[in-house]
Request: fold
Amino acid sequence: MTQAHAPAAIRHPIRAWSGVPALLGVLVAAFLLHIAVGAKPLALGTVVDALVQFDETVFDHVVVRNLRLPRAVLAVVVGASLSLAGALMQGVTRNPLADPALLGLTAGASFAVVMATALLGYTGMGLVAWIAMAGALGAALTVYVIARLVPGGATPLSLTLSGAAVSAFLGAIISIAHLLSEDTFENLRVWLTGGLAGRDIALLWYVGPWITVALAAGLALAPRVTVLAMGDEVAQGLGVKTGPLKVQLLAVVVVLTACSVALAGPLGFIGLVIPHVMRLYVGSDYRWIVPYAALTGAVYLLSIDIVARIAIPPREISTGIITAMVGAPLFVHLVRRRTR
Amino acid sequence: MSRLEALEVDAGYAQTNILEGVDLTVPDGKVTILIGPNGCGKSTLLKTMARILSPSHGHVLLDGKDIHHLNTRTVAARLGLLPQGPTAPEGLTVRELVAQGRFPHQSLLRQWTRADEDAVNGAMSIAGIGEFADRAVDTLSGGQRQRCWVAMVLAQETELILLDEPTTFLDLKVQVDLMDLLTDLAHERGRTLVVVLHELSLAAAYADYLVMMKAGHIVSAGAPDDIFTAERLKDVFGLDASVVRDPASGRLVCVPFGARQRPRQKLAAQ
Reply:
């Protein structure tokens, strides 16, 4: 019996990795397509040429390099970050409804960026990542302190509830500030619905290193998340230092969420839903959920942004709106098909 | 010398000590069973010996070294723990659950190997769960689930295995099967087991070394034949019971009686 099981079992990790090349292929295709479509559709050959043998005298190449490539990179980075952060959050909190916004992270980052821009008039880029991270971390700590003060202490329930309260509160303050100074908010309005349009790509140079490190750390920590999801005592018995691990994971989630907010505003849905879709296909081991969620998140946001750019030409719809408008029915369809 | 010892251990939660000055030398290659009333500290002792709880005073020695100062991953390669009532993440398959037992043997550079695969398959076949390897743990019955968790600890391939009430909520037959399995591990594979149990007769039947606890102290410890008596059960649990030897198995059995069921001798004497 053991022998009959062995071959199937040995295939297991290979089978689990086998989707990665396919998904990478889809990612490259979506990336090229994203660059090709737009107000002036370009041939895929032109896109590839612009990327591999750039000629600054060709107008289309300049469009690709300066306008479209940055936006595609942005979609990849933000999609992967939010989706990976959501997967980690769901594992750490053992809460299937967890997402990067759970502990007030998204609201905190948005709040900090809005205040810095609207009230302090900060328009530079060097500090935006820091401001967003400080906001996210500040909100998370506030949420934690409030949960600690609740009778019973910081349980998943009290953390979730105080996270919701803090998020709502910060959201209300953003709305008030919005009403009081509409002029300043003209620039932030689109950003606040979550979007990839008109973002200054130079920001990526400041935020990119943070995101790269956090994505790598998240992937490296993924196997431990499954162990952690089996409960603190089981995890400790298996040799995991649960306290430090939770701090490391929270740091990764804070960096990814805050940087995504800095780059594209508060984009919902991706961090909650993509990890769930992955679960339908790769099972419940975070060793697989995390890398697949990162890749799929990137593909998803690229595809969504394509729709946002071409749905009602010549205007664009904010990516944040399309994310849920297209995503929600798609999600319902996938769940119905897989669980039937 | 024993591989696992508790020396003058005080331990508990927050500011309250539950254990006070507990000494326990766990015999190697034997089944040690801890019994005692609710709240007596048997789980606390098990967790302290598994380094999950730190003692406020005293030491736990693993191979002669303070377990709370050893690298936790090194410990996990030698000592496995199954806590009380663990729950698996929704949708995790049996094989995935058992595979987590290999965590202490893996690292970033040393990922899944043939040895891991063999350990997982071996553990699943010992626990008799091979047939539902690819099912989700949360779709199984309580007994099947418990065997999956035992298999996870077995896959860890540790010489010492600590289990907190592994038979809770199981049918009697399944409890017996599980205890048989654990006894085989000790007697045939030389593993050292420490088990917290609620069921007294089961404890008396399977313990090589029985440890009775009351209010944070070890009241008595030894072979069931020597210490499993009606007087001690009365003292430790406040339980009126007779301890009789089952003629068929030769094992000691605890037969409790309540207020309305006075023993015949007493009735006869009145």
